[in-house]
Design brief:
Number of strands of chain A: 2
Distance between the termini of chain A: 51 Å
Chains: A mainly alpha (about 290), B alpha/beta (about 600), C alpha/beta (about 375)
CATH topology of the largest domain in chain C: Rossmann fold
CATH superfamily of the largest domain in chain C: Response regulator
Largest sheet of chain C: 7 strands, mixed
Number of strands of chain C: 14
Order of helices and strands of chain C: HHEHEHEHEEHEHEHEHEHEHHHEEEE
Oligomer: heterotrimer
Low-confidence stretches of chain A: 284-290
Helix content of chain A: over 70%
Distance between the termini of chain C: 59 Å
Strand order of the largest sheet of chain A: 1-2
Order of helices and strands of chain A: HHHHEEHHHHHHH
């Protein structure tokens, strides 16, 4: 039982990381109908920005603000450089361009910073707390907390604010939105900024646990993408639940079935979902519009 | 495995002149093979050429699945690895014959490709991207962890070559010969029935379906062809380098294959060779750039973005574009005879009998218990105000939507639960309100796809008969002299005519026309009216939807009126148009 | 006809290999050339730089002492891109230059395996750093190893844990890549021979984000000592921290990554008190100390095994060619194999018939973040 509780905590913790990155995927997908394969690199870049600022001697909170501001800027550049020129083409060139962007980002960081992984201190000085038989890592507690807050924020933002509703309208029907006087390209720009900041936030939060390395983003992103499909593509709640479910499945699969095949579980679950329940846990819409 | 039946294109049945026309290709290939066999290369160049040759074959696969069929495959390195491991483990561990292993490599990848395709190709592109990535990751994990079978990360060493090609030089010549043969097949695939089907699916899935193409089967075939070429290439690679290990078949390699394909030009095997050659040679030339780790790959990533942005058809597409346009204009289309329509007459007096047809989207009843009976040889119109359910009805009739309830009988056959392409085979032809043509093809090729409808009785065997039938249909709508032009060069009205010609070429039993007059000017409308008369004169039954009351009242003998998804009137044209419910539905009831 | 064909071939060759040819054209005949395949790009690019540093340091010393056979020695470097196909191309590119007399291969075992068929074809000596035992045990006469192979690391870890620390209940955690699998196997064999078969043998995949299941497995196995083969420092760092968080504090003897500088930096206190085997330890001998000093003087950073083995390889290769008095490959081979009791930076070289020069490891300890030399364990068989 102690074992199960410990595994459950870790599973939820790592699952929350997937969920955060998955959220960025879903937002961009809903707005542009495109999967952004560079989403994981957003997390990586933010973590490196954070390391640079902290090493420069800036206070932690200021570094955090600067890193997220940097991500917002990256979101703008990404939209203008990668998505916007291709917006009238099919999804295929855009996917490939985002793959190109992911190669570009990770290797630019490699060229500047070298391949050695870096250390980023956590938010808290205490590494964790012992709660009965279960050890709770403080950084994972923070990640879970932030995920809950973000879910609430997203709900409020998309359902209660005018900007959120405009974004919703844009993602549902671009033509109708522009007829209503909503600037579609502005909405897409905002989406890219928000999603880059979200990806960056995930990267900064997870960096103290996983260290800061070039590959940190790509492995998480693949899992996060699997999570979005399990949850139901294009569904915000689905991304969160999918991410958490994947983290838990993976951790228990590793503990009770096989550690070396741990990464395989995510993809097996994914394929099973695609074959038997392609609409995901929450989704309704399957086929692309006729 | 029906998916693989028509997988291999059949240039063998082509008439003799074609072989003679392609003689330069074979002479060129023979010269290349002789060069590969005869020249004294040093080991470095030999390795580069061997790598380029085998990689090119794998990239051919992508030009089929991505270029021809428009489906993404991010697991080509996994299939490449399947082939390499089949030959590697087969010759090194099981001491089997090389040729047997190579055939085995193709068979395994065929099954794996078809299986993977069948499990996911019903879903859209993003899912396919994700599933192929997952497949790739799992294959890599298994290669690394199933140590008992694959030797794990150590890889497989001492892979043997066939007795005949022991020396590296002769093996290279053999690989070049394989490249030439596969290249020839891939080059001509677009002109075969399967190839046309793939292009149609890529250009417009819906239109492909209603023109009698089994979209799913076509996609699975393309995927399987791609996988087999990957497997073949991997097998040849393993023989060439004598050692394989899991890291050579990782996701990164799949991306590299994809980039090779895109860089050279995804539409043609020549592009594949150019792209592969460049991406193997450029890193070799730019070795000096590599003193800063990451710099080279960063430039590589940037180039991918720039190529996609500025050279969407790759290098070869860029070069060949102008040439193709020029050639399309110079080739004069053949002169055609008159088009004959012989609608089948298996059933009775009623060609289409729809009873209690409903289509609900969640709570919305778009079509609700509609009955329609279309008499043989008549022109029947389906009208109604906007949102009355006309187009939904048509989409349910042609199989794009599944009926919630009700029954559709076409010429005595119950087609209610058939897929679109099966309905087409049963004798249905249709056009779309927003024209759905295959935009990358010429007018003639578009109509040929229609003529290729399974169970089309009005067409003989062979490509010549196909072209003849398509030309007749194009001439019938008055565009025979522009048959070899690309769709984009036609006006909107002419595109509509081509779409009708495409449906006519298939010799349907019933023709569904979805707002054919929409967007036409008055002259074009007159021409359309004349055309409809000529079609009806040949005894073809037509079900037409339109807003243009003049057209409808003049062309149709019988009218069914829908409003809010329900039938509100049905009968002889003039009577129906004077029906008070119809008048109020159109004018609004005060 | 024949002439033109050869000309054409030469032209093509020149086009493909132009940069390399231009570089070496004017140096023809004046120097003795040694080829070196090293990662300049890819994940191991930085380690590749250290390897070049080590080789160049030895080269300078050799040339200062009069070179080889009266000529200066020149190093021809090709990038292996840290990939298997990359090293095949890099090696064949070097091998195509007929005036190169010997080569330095890779520190990565799979890369050596990938290039091995070409090595046999070329038939010239290749110095390697890959530690998979099979490399020198599968009948390839041209491979010479300048690091102890994994059989020895396994034996040293087992011997140290069982004899020195007195622990018999072992848990083994290893990466499932080539290095980790081979190491885990060697350690299991060595422990079984010592009468202490492991109670847990747990593999993991590289770049795992979480090691909780592994740590819990170690905890539940009841082991009183831990042996590890980790490939990547960030995996090791995550594992070490989670191990301590979940209260596992048993002694830990691991492969070189446990005591690598970057792991020490990443994991911090979680690795205090651990032992690791190291083929290079600066305090292990006088030669190692003087190499360390020279390296620091030249490059301002601490040396490690990545730079030590190429240093030894160049030194011993040059001495062997001088002793052979010729650049004939067979004579060089015999001369290398005859090298005995040669003190190098990595240890004392006694080449056996397989081409393995070293037969033991240093054991070092992480003493509150500082790596200190503990003892050297050598085997004679």
């Amino acid at each position: 039982m102690d074992l199960i509780l410990q595994l459950l905590f870790t599973g939820i913790g790592i699952g929350a990381v997937y969920a955060l990155v998955a959220l960025g995927f879903v937002l961009i997908f809903r707005a542009t109908n495109v999967v952004n394969f560079a989403q994981g690199e957003f997390s990586m870049v933010a973590a490196y920005l954070m390391v640079v600022c902290v090493e420069f001697g800036l206070p932690y909170w200021l570094s955090f603000v600067i890193a997220l501001a940097g991500m917002a800027l990256l979101g703008v550049i990404f939209n203008l450089g990668v998505y916007y020129p291709l917006r009238h083409r099919t999804y295929l060139p855009v996917i490939i361009a985002t793959i190109g962007a992911s190669i570009l980002l990770s290797n630019t960081v490699l060229a500047i910073y070298g391949p050695q992984p870096q250390v980023l201190q956590g938010w808290f000085d205490t590494p964790g707390i012992q709660l009965g038989p279960v050890y709770l890592d403080s950084q994972y507690l923070l990640i879970i907390g932030v995920t809950i807050l973000l879910v609430l924020f997203n709900f409020w933002f998309f359902e209660k604010t005018l900007l959120g509703k405009k974004l919703q309208a844009t993602s549902q029907d671009k033509e109708m939105a522009s007829l209503l006087g909503i600037s579609v390209s502005t909405m897409i720009m905002i989406t890219f900024i928000y999603s880059a900041v979200l990806g960056g936030l995930a990267g900064i939060l997870v960096a103290p646990v996983l260290f800061v390395s070039i590959q940190m983003g790509s492995t998480i992103a693949l899992k996060a993408f699997a999570a979005t499909i399990i949850g139901g593509f294009g569904d915000v709640a689905g991304a969160i639940v999918g991410g958490l479910a994947l983290g838990v499945i993976e951790t228990f699969g590793a503990a009770y079935i096989s550690v070396p095949y741990k990464d395989g579980f995510a993809f097996l679950v994914l394929i099973a979902f695609l074959v038997f329940r392609p609409q995901g846990i929450f989704g309704e819409r399957v086929a692309e519009k006729a | 495995m029906s998916a693989s039946d028509n997988m291999i294109p059949a240039p063998a049945v082509r008439s003799k002149p074609l072989i003679i026309r392609h003689l330069p290709y074979f002479i060129g290939a023979a010269v290349l093979v002789a060069l590969a066999a005869g020249m004294q290369f040093d080991g470095y160049i030999l390795n580069i050429l061997l790598q380029a040759t085998t990689f090119s074959i794998a990239v051919f696969g992508l030009s089929v699945v991505l270029g021809l069929c428009g489906q993404i495959n991010l697991a080509q390195a996994a299939f490449f690895g399947f082939g390499a491991y089949a030959v590697g483990l087969g010759t090194a561990d099981l001491h089997l014959n090389f040729w047997l292993c190579l055939v085995g490599a193709c068979a395994i990848t065929l099954v794996a490709g078809a299986f993977l395709g069948m499990s996911t190709l019903r879903l859209g592109g993003h899912y396919l991207a994700m599933v192929t990535i997952s497949f790739q990751q799992i294959v890599t994990l298994v290669m690394i962890n199933a140590v008992g079978v694959t030797h794990g990360p150590d890889g497989v060493a001492n892979i043997r070559r066939p007795e005949l090609f022991q020396s590296s030089q002769s093996y290279l010549a053999f690989c070049v010969a394989m490249l030439a043969i596969v290249g020839y097949l891939v080059w001509h695939l677009p002109d075969t029935k399967l190839g046309r089907a793939m292009r149609a699916v890529r250009d417009n899935e819906l239109a492909a379906g209603v023109n009698g193409i089994d979209v799913f089967r076509t996609k699975v075939s393309a995927f399987a062809v791609c996988a087999v070429l990957g497997g073949l290439a991997g097998g040849l690679f393993a023989g060439g380098f004598a050692y394989v290990s899991p890291d050579q078949f990782s996701f990164a390699e799949s991306i590299q294959f994809l980039t090779m394909s895109l860089l050279g030009g995804v539409a043609s095997p020549i592009g594949s060779v150019i792209g592969t050659g460049l991406l193997i040679l450029i890193p070799e030339w730019l070795r000096f750039l590599k003193s800063v780790p990451g710099l080279y790959l960063a430039i590589y990533g940037l180039s991918v973005i720039l190529i996609i942005r500025f050279m969407p058809d790759g290098i070869w597409g860029f070069v060949s574009d102008a040439f193709t346009r020029w050639r399309a204009h110079t080739k004069a289309p053949p002169v055609a005879g008159a088009l004959h329509l012989k609608p089948a007459t298996a059933g009775g007096d009623i060609v289409l009998e729809v009873t209690g047809l409903s289509k609900h989207f969640g709570g919305l009843k778009a079509v609700d218990g509609v009955d329609i009976a279309v008499k043989r040889g008549s022109v029947h119109a389906l009208i109604g105000p906007n949102g009355s359910g006309k187009t939904t009805t048509l989409n349910v009739l042609s199989g794009l939507y599944k009926a919630t309830s009700g029954k559709i009988v076409l010429d005595g056959t119950d087609i209610t639960s058939m897929a679109p392409h099966q309905r087409t085979a049963a004798g249905l032809g249709r056009t779309f309100q927003n024209i759905r043509l295959f935009r990358s093809m010429t007018a003639l090729e578009n109509v040929e796809i229609g003529a290729e409808r399974p169970s089309n009785t009005m067409i003989g065997k062979g490509d010549d008969a196909l072209t003849e039938r398509a030309m007749e249909a194009l001439t019938f709508v008055g565009l025979g002299n522009r048959a070899n032009e690309l769709i984009s060069s036609f006006s909107y009205g002419h595109q509509r005519l081509i779409e009708i010609a495409r449906a006519l070429a298939s010799n349907p039993t019933l023709l569904l026309l979805d707002e054919p007059a929409a967007g036409l000017n008055s002259t074009e409308k007159l021409e359309l009216h004349e055309l409809l008369k000529r079609i009806a004169a040949q005894g073809l039954t037509i079900l037409i939807i339109d807003h243009d009351m003049t057209l409808v009242s003049e062309a149709a003998q019988h009218i069914t009126v829908l409003n809010f998804g329900r039938r509100i009137a049905d009968g002889e044209s003039m009577a129906v148009l004077r029906h008070p419910d119809v008048v109020s539905a159109y004018l609004g009831s005060e | 006809m024949k002439l033109t064909r050869r000309e054409f071939s030469a032209g093509l060759a020149a086009g493909l290999a132009a940069p390399a040819l231009m570089r070496s054209a004017w140096a023809q005949g004046a120097t003795i050339k040694i080829g070196m395949c090293v990662p300049v790009t890819g994940p191991a690019a930085e380690q590749g730089l250290w390897a070049q540093n080590g080789a160049k340091l030895a080269l300078a010393a050799v040339n200062k002492a009069g070179g080889v056979l009266g000529k200066q020695v020149e190093l021809v470097i090709e990038d292996d891109q840290t990939t298997n196909p990359g090293i095949v191309l890099a090696f064949s590119k070097l091998a195509a230059q007929s005036d190169i007399v010997a080569f330095l291969g890779s520190i990565r075992s799979t890369q050596v395996q990938a290039m091995a068929p070409d090595v046999i074809k070329v038939g010239k000596p290749v110095m390697i750093g890959g530690t998979n035992p099979d490399l020198t045990h599968s009948g390839n006469p041209w491979l010479f190893r300048f690091r102890p192979n994994d059989n020895y690391s396994g034996r040293v870890i087992a011997d140290y844990g069982v004899s020195t620390l007195g622990k018999k209940k072992w848990a083994i955690v290893h990466s499932t890549d080539a290095f980790g699998t081979a190491g885990g196997k060697a350690l299991t064999e060595a422990l079984t021979k010592l009468g202490a078969p492991p109670v847990l043998d747990q593999g993991y995949a590289n770049q795992s984000q979480d090691f909780t299941p592994v740590v819990l497995a170690v905890k539940q196995s009841g082991a009183d000592v831990l042996g590890t083969y980790f490939t990547f420092e960030n995996d090791l760092g995550i594992f070490a921290r989670q191990l301590r968080q979940l209260g596992v504090n048993i002694p830990w003897v691991g492969s070189p990554s446990v005591v690598a500088v970057s792991s020490t930096k990443l994991a911090g206190p979680a690795l205090f008190g651990t032992y690791g085997v190291a083929d290079f330890a600066e305090d292990s001998s006088d030669v190692a100390k003087s190499f360390g000093k020279a390296y620091r003087d030249a490059y301002k950073t601490a040396p490690d095994n990545q730079s030590a083995w190429p240093y030894d390889a160049i030194t011993i290769l040059s001495a062997a060619i001088n002793k052979a008095g010729s650049t004939d490959p067979t004579k060089i081979r015999e001369s290398i194999l005859a090298t005995q009791k040669f003190a190098g930076a990595e240890g004392e070289y006694n080449f056996d018939k397989n081409g393995d020069g070293l037969h033991g490891y240093n054991v070092v300890k992480n003493d509150k973040g500082k790596i200190v030399y503990d003892k050297h364990i050598d085997f004679n068989d």
